Amino acid sequence: MDIQELSKQLKRANPAMVYLVLGTQAVLQQEAKDVFLNLIPEEERVMNVGSYDMETTPLADALDDAMAAPFFGERRLVILNKPAFLTGGTSRGALKQDGEVLREYLKHPQPTTVLVLLAPYEKLDGRKGVVKDLKKLAVEVSAAPLDEPRARRLVEQRFQADGYQLGRGAIDELVRRTNADYGKMMAAVPVIELAVYQDKRVTDAAVAGLVPQSLDENVFDLVQAVLNREQVEAVRLYRELLESQQAPLQINAILVSQFRLLLQIKVLSNRGLSQGTLAGQLKVHPYRVKLGLQTARRFSMDDLSHAYLGLIRCERALKSTQQDPELLFQLFLLQYTKQKVS
Asked: The whole model's pTM is what?
């Protein structure tokens, strides 16, 4: 289930004894934690809420707390943060945990305790016995990164719940500037709301003025200018990146990665892979795949490969010579345009 379903379920019925919140979206992990905290009246939280970092606290200590009866309240809430022992690896310096302790607890969980495991990982190691036992008993809540439509819908709902009107194109601009990253979108909401508090109307111009465009998004605009052979615009965008203190090698590296992604999307989409499958195989956000598909369909494999190889040569020159980076980029543009003409 997702966070909204969790919230609705907990309002309708008593909570389960064990929950697993799995996924790498930090803002969703926090939202889930807030939902569980609401199970405990604020005046009882000091005595009936325990939160433990599994990288520094022995698992046995946390589960001892879970076994305790609530103190003058209906239930206890015990949260296990970052249970890396459920995955295939552990963080450097993290405390080694004995998963068998949790397996024993799961056999007879304390009925007056809600045990929540906040696991900020893509997946757990399903080969481990403790993971198998956990999956059988725990209610799983997804904190995986949201796709664009879902992220857009939740942000729209947040603005509307706060009493703000959305102008045409406002959410589109927010999606574009944050690469549809739900965490970045939600972080921008209070900034935007504060700025337009008087008329409570969110416009695309307000979003553009308040939400900085990411480096990846700036480079995406540069990629479009390169592919469209818009040399003046491409040089202007490149110069802006240099003026914003971006290192030439970093700019070039992101350009290379963008064109590499476009080539991968072009090849795999020609084999019939869907947008969702592409995102999974390439391990990139679905929104980036959506934009990549739009671009890859408009340009040939030769267009994309010539640009990619030209940028590789530009990278070599940046590393091996003292030539001006902007001059090297202009040379790349001239050679790229010449290949198209010929």
From this structure: 0.72
